[in-house]
Specification:
The complex is a heterodimer of chains A (500) and B (151).
Chain A: H1 2-12, H2 15-33, H3 39-50, H4 55-80, H5 89-100, H6 104-137, H7 142-159, H8 164-179, E1 181-182, E2 189-190, H9 204-223, H10 241-263, H11 269-283, H12 296-311, H13 313-319, H14 325-336, H15 345-348, H16 350-371, H17 375-382, H18 386-405, H19 408-426, H20 432-454, H21 461-464, H22 466-480, H23 484-499
Antiparallel strand pairs in A: 1-2
Helix pairs in contact in A: 1-16, 2-4, 2-16, 3-4, 3-9, 3-14, 3-18, 4-5, 4-6, 4-12, 4-14, 4-16, 5-6, 5-12, 6-10, 6-12, 6-13, 6-16, 7-8, 7-20, 7-22, 8-20, 9-18, 9-19, 10-11, 10-12, 11-12, 18-19
Chain B: H1 2-26, H2 38-59, H3 73-96, H4 98-113, H5 118-139
Helix pairs in contact in B: 1-2, 3-4, 4-5
The chains are: A mainly alpha (500), B mainly alpha (151).
Amino acid sequence: MLTDLAYGFSVLLGWDNLIYCFSGVLMGTLVGVLPGLGPVAAMSLLFTATLHIPPVSGIIMLAGIYYGAQYGGSTTSILLSIPGEASTVVTCIDGYQMARQGRAGPALGISAFGSFIGGTISILGLMLLAPPLANFALRFGFPEYFSLMCLGLIMVSFLARGSMLKAMMMAAFGLFLGAIGMDIIVGIPKFTFGLDILMDGVGLIPAVMGLFGLSEVMLNIEASLSQEIFKAKISHLLPNLKDWKDSIMPILRGSFLGFFLGILPGGGAFVSSFTSYAMEKRISKHPEKFGTGAIEGVAGPESANNAGAGGAFIPLLTLGIPSNAVMAILLGLLLSQGVQVGPLLLKKHSDIFWGVVASMYIGNAMLLVLNLPLIGIWVKILKVPYQILFPLILLFCVIGAYSLNYNTDDVLIMIFFGVVGYFLKKFDYDAAPLILALVLGPMMENSLRQSLLVSQGSFLIFLTRPISATLLAISVFLLVLPLLPSLLARKWKDLEKKES
Amino acid sequence: MKTHDRLSGLFWAVAAIFICVGSLRLSLGNLHHPGPGFFSFVAGAILGLLSMILFWQSSKKGPEEKRKTFWSPPGTGRMIWMVIALIVYVLGMKYVGFFFSTILFLGFLLRGIGRQKWPATISVTLLTAIISHITFQYWLDVQLPRGFIGF
């Protein structure tokens, strides 16, 4: 493994890859700091640019944006109580209270150190777990892949923000969107409405940019153009001994929890940070301190979201299945560069796997420098008014979508999805399951049709193979789980009635 | 909240019917050889079923949850103007060219929607148009629309 890691460093330590790594973490921190432009939208914007560079450089840069945004997102959460990132929402609770009490420095400091430790632990986990998991995945056939993708979509809905029912509806709609385009077996157009642009299916990048980038700008413009500007001075970034004593266990717990939650489909940074906060509050001897500026409420979630970001790479790099929207973009990049993604990636493209692992080590160290000594620069960027930022974000979205095929139709599709995303947010639907289903849809359809061809039309093939059956059983369990409390309550009431 | 869920549930139910009918027209095939409409039909059927559950759940008697207003007139107006400007920009880009259409687009957003002063509007617009044109056209080699002016 050390030889492999050394190989990864040899891939990374060429000047070009180091520059791509630095550009990625720099842009990640920037989009994390700026509210209204998350890593998903930023990665989509740069997607086209990465098609002109080798796949390993492209994935190093885009991965840097993802984990860099986890660092940067905490800055606005702590200083303005505006989460730069969904995964830093919980940091607002205690981080902002610390800033109001004049402890913005230690809050930012522990957030950066926690992120570094969480990130490093997740890289170690990725190195240790990915190779055996990839070997195990070699046993997977079409039925196993289909069942795994079913589990992935159900898990995404289970862990989604808000209603699980609505998340599942989004997944179903995403599956339909994924079916649009030329049929791979029969060769006839499906739901293309005579539009040439839909022949290859609904483009992932215009859809992501619309749903996550444009819709966010639309909502921000509608809400308000005024923005609170941070005025206080930041000093003493290094946490003191007591801060470290209070934070070290939450950091370690958050890192391990975040990593394992990150591996789950639908997991990643967002779920990890919320779960870590809830766990810290529950096990704390002073839960009443949470919400009033407890450093544990910053340290745990910040470590967890970075560890979760690292863990999310495992399903993609070992099984070829993305666990969230960010990983879906990385999958899109690898596929469009002709890289075969799946259990054989580690053997056939070891430069990509070990290059990414090595880049995460170096990237995390770069981020520590970017987010501690250079915090003043990010605070200055926060002072740029949104009235000037939003036209620039829109312009980048337009150029990003246009440059995919040098076609304005892609931009119109992005606008369409922007409007769809706006209404989805207004009606409290989470767009993440839709994006994941859009990517998994064609793969699922292929696995289903191939499985049925093999089994001569018998659905029992999904139940007679042990791995597939286990995955489906977990899926059913997750579907039933939300119904259990109400069923148990009803049963309890009936028992009480009988007894009385 | 419940009204919104009822409305959206109905919308998705109609969308599901459209998907299922379209899939039937494509042919479902059989289990040995699933046709091109099979998978989209299953997706549409699941969407339809779930949307009916949402509609049924939100139609049950119970207190209407409080919710902020759906539209906020001045802000919504701003947002609609922004989307219109975006569509006009994209459609007009082919004819006017990237550079000049970008100047008009940014100028409108900064001055008309962002209420920036003229000096800020002009400087940000020109600087952004020039930098983005050079970066994308010459550095990243993106073939931006040239229009009748030629750039």
